[in-house]
Amino acid sequence: MQSYVELFNLGKTYPTRERPLDAVRGFDLRIARGEIVALIGPSGCGKSTVLAMVAGLTETSDGSIGVGNREISGPGPDRSVVFQTPSLLPWMSAYDNVMLGVEQVFHNSTAEQRRQIVRDHLAQVGLTHVGHTMPSELSEGMQQRVGIARACAVAPRVLLVDEPFDMLDFQTRMDLQDVLLRILERAKMTALVATHDADEALYVADRVVMMTSGPEAHVGDVVATPFSRPRTRADVLGHPAYPELRGRLIDSLDAQGPPSAELDESRARTDEGVWGAGPAEDRHFKTEGVASHLAS
To answer: How confident is the model at residue 19 (pLDDT cuts 50, 70, 90)?
Structure first.
């Protein structure tokens, strides 16, 4: 299949006390239109860095990124992010959080058309009944559903998913994986999903890209999953190839180990653990930055 998203020789360098440190280097990946690719690796290996560069929220140090045969140089409505935490604007209802991006992207549509888009996407994540509820009144799982609806309602060409289920309980995590898959399948959307969970990667993805631990993290082994879409959890778990593939991913994660202490120091000093490492004006993880991203 023809590539739709192209990451060529991608690199990100951060300053440290001793010398510049290459967190990501020589990262090459091609994603076909409509494909779901999981990016798996140990915590801190640079998965969020790669996603943030594709989103245009963190500048690349080297290489280039193309989406639909067009090189990107910043954020845009063709790419949307489901963040690690929902980062909902606390003074807005669930409905208004989703509407924020819809108003920016579909400003030429009628008010009723925009309202219908918001209603449809809240319905897709199972939140029709809580649209006018404030974020503080929602559970973590419900907040993350709003975050998914907000990201998908702007009809992006590429959805970037950065471990949004990591802090949820087991059942809620499985439910939201199913929600995400249904939305991606319905919209035929291209997606890059960062995770360090082997079972999640195998369940949601058409291919699993194993990222090496940093510094100089890059693409390691790549596994094509044999599970057809749309898929059910029972079909995946019962597939004869599942145990071998799961063992292969877990072995890869164990072999990588934790990132180096030097890389940990670099990320701690540049806020790499949250979206938008670097200068304060580039940190889009905060709620104010989310609003800016949706308005891009």
So the answer is: confident
CA 140, distance to chain mean position in Å, is 17
Which structural domain, as residue segments, surrounds residue 163? Answer: 3-86+155-295
User: Dihedral (C-alpha) 117, 122, 124, 126: value to the nearest 10 degrees?
Assistant: -160
Number of Cβ within a 10 Å radius of residue 224:
9
What is the CB neighbour count within 10 angstroms for residue 260? Answer: 14
pLDDT of 48-66, one tens digit each? Answer: 999 999 999 999 999 999 9
Specify whether the CB–CB gap between 177 and 204 falls below 8 A: yes
Per the DSSP assignment, residues forming a β-bridge with 222 are: 209
| Rounded percentage of the chain residues whose pLDDT exceeds 70 | 86
Contacts (Cβ under 8 Å, ≥6 apart) of 212: 41, 45, 218, 219, 220, 256
| pTM of the predicted model as reported, rounded to 2 decimal places | 0.86
CB-based contact 223:208 (threshold 8 Å): yes
Residue 136 lies in a domain: no
Half-sphere exposure of 123 (CA within 13 A, CB side): 6
Counted domains in the chain: 1
